[in-house]
Design brief:
Mean pLDDT: 94
Structural class: alpha/beta
CATH class of the largest domain: Alpha Beta
Helix content: 40-55%
Number of helices: 14
Distance between the termini: 47 Å
CATH topology of the largest domain: Aspartate Aminotransferase, domain 2
Length: 360
């Protein structure tokens, strides 16, 4: 069935027509180092215990609408202050959507540094808000003066700061983040998706910053297939954002699995520690390839720049060698000639480095 273009243009908003759907490439049998996933599988003994717990879930009943037991587990695991409230989402993407829906209105602005997580702009555009992108400096740091000037000019309803930043991997200067919190006229969301791979966090500052919200996800910890995110902040804010949440958004299976996994979080904390060491080894291996510019990372991926004009060829050559990473060239001016590789298992990282060396 074919729908006429004129009819589509009459019905679908031009802002939405101008977007591209989020593309997830098929990795097939390739070494998959493009999506910032934990490369380590659950131990067999843990899988068996988990399956035993799932057998007790009553799928004929709706889930616990408040997900109370899961919230308690996540609150403990993530060190959320007692005074803070919590809202859960189907991944952090849904929570970003909920925040933006809560503040949406004519003339409202969403702001974030660029390059940054693409879903901030995507969701803001779909919701009909204006989006203000604030350029990072050449080293991908956050320029305090530029950010303050943008805050004064655009008066955003919400500012998103990924900490560490995606796709650059770096942590912004915490004093600059605090300056943004002090100057912002609306909410500031510190998105700590990559918290398992750094010791830095703003979670404790929820007690002193009344416009701060902290976003977390279990995806990078080892549960990317589970789709569980958490938003923490002052109860007065979260009570309003909660109104945008669809009922039963966290399934019974996800609640049961999340509770189970966090009860065994020492397994996943050990995996995160291994990934940190793997990251250091991979970073050293990339630095040894003198044709590259390699950027420090506090996440589970590393951004690097290849010689001018070679990003597409290097990306394609890696695919031919059976390794899939992310080509960021062309996605933003500051990412010209850049590729991003997820930290894999040591043998995967070695295969990637070997293939990359032959292409430079």
């Amino acid at each position: 069935m074919t729908i006429s273009r004129k009819k589509i243009e009459r019905i679908i908003r031009p802002e939405v027509r101008g977007l591209s759907a989020y593309h997830v490439p098929d990795s097939g049998a390739m070494i998959k180092l493009d999506a910032m996933e934990n490369p380590y599988r659950w131990p067999d003994w843990l899988v068996e215990e988990w399956l035993g717990q799932l057998r007790r879930v009553s799928l004929n009943r709706y889930p616990d609408a408040a997900a109370s037991a899961l919230k308690a587990r996540m609150r403990s695991a993530m060190g959320i202050p007692e005074q803070a409230a919590v809202v859960l989402g189907n991944g952090s993407d849904e929570l970003i959507q909920m925040i933006i829906q809560a503040v949406a209105g004519p003339g409202r602005v969403v702001m974030a540094p660029e390059p940054g997580f693409v879903m901030y702009r995507q969701i803001a555009t779909v919701a009909g808000l204006d989006y203000a992108a604030v350029p990072l400096q050449a080293d991908y740091s956050l320029d305090r003066d530029v950010m303050i000037e943008a805050l004064d000019e655009h008066r955003p309803a919400v500012v998103f700061l990924a900490y560490p930043n995606n796709p650059t991997g770096n942590l912004f200067d915490p004093e600059v983040v605090r300056a943004v919190l002090a100057r912002a006229p609306g909410l500031v969301v510190v998105d700590e998706a990559y918290a398992p791979f750094t010791d830095e966090t703003f979670m404790g500052e929820l007690q002193v910053c009344d416009n701060l919200l902290v976003l977390r996800t279990l995806s990078k910890m080892g549960f990317a297939g589970l789709r569980l995110g958490l938003l923490a902040g002052a109860p007065d804010w979260l009570n309003e954002i909660e109104k945008t949440r669809l009922p039963y958004n966290i399934s019974s299976l996800n609640q049961s699995t999340g509770e189970f996994a966090l009860a065994h979080r020492e397994v996943f904390e050990a995996q995160a520690a291994s990934i940190r060491q793997d990251r250091a080894d991979l970073y050293a291996g990339l630095q040894a390839l003198t044709a590259l510019t390699v950027y420090p990372s506090a996440a589970n991926f590393i951004l690097f720049r290849v010689p001018a004009g070679q990003a597409g060829a290097v990306h394609a050559g890696l695919k031919e060698s059976g390794v899939l990473i992310k080509n960021l060239d062309g996605s933003a001016p500051a990412l010209c000639d850049c590729l991003r590789v997820t930290v894999g298992r040591p043998q995967e990282n070695a295969a990637f480095l070997s293939a990359l060396a032959t292409l430079l």
